[in-house]
Amino acid sequence: MKRGMIMVARLIAGVLLLAGNRALAEPLRVVVSTTLLEGIVLAVGGDQVTVTPVIPHTMCPGHFDLSPRLASEIAASDVFIQHGFETFARKLGFGAEGPRRVVLPVKGNGMIPEVHREITAAVCAALGEARPAATEVFSANAARYVAQIGEVEQRLQAKRDALTGIPVLAAVMNAPFIAWIGCNVVGTFPRDEGLSAAGMVALGRTAHEQKVRLVVDNHQSQGRTGRMLAGELKVPLIILSNFPSTAEGGYPAALQAAMESLHATLVTTGQD
Fold this sequence. Notes:
Shape: globular
Number of domains: 2
Helix content: 40-55%
Radius of gyration: 23 Å
Distance between the termini: 89 Å
CATH class of the largest domain: Alpha Beta
CATH architecture of the largest domain: 3-Layer(aba) Sandwich
Number of strands: 8
Structural class: alpha/beta
């Protein structure tokens, strides 16, 4: 009898171990709100995750409507990660069987390296809570990703120094990143539908007084305001994104491309 109980206990332990190994072998199904988060989850999660972004990198998260198909994908996931500013997510409701919902506690523009590193740490912690057995893997992957960002920063430091103090106009959504680079953001403008005629006149007056050299508009907006301002001021226009495409190298590539574009426009071409 005792021998039989021992065999049953061993059998149960073997079944539980097999189930645990199978669960660990199956990737976490992670759905994220933006492509910026997609890139971070891919870098940190590695082969422990599959990632589905909800909002395409060309669209504004604040003006995105969730389709029934995407709502179903979120409901079927293991983890749903969002920034906290996504309006569509306020309508989501999950039962006890729904995904683990993570609203990141990080505020600020994710294109700024310091902020991006904070988001990476928060994502790493969230994935570790969802899969504790892979915590060390996530931490090692996050450290490599952060180191990669640091290397990009170092390579671009000379270009950043050359851009310090140059007066620009920037879309509200891009202004924090442009200010981090070191440019002098003398004025900002909202999305196309948010700027009045009087506001446009006042912004143009400021730009002339401050001898603005560049207009930076947001890729996720329609961009008419930026084009109008650049045309009126007869200065270059650059379109930048706050939500890089993972197919185009994600955040590290976008950070480098943004800095090189600004430098090429304002310094290399002799605008300086």
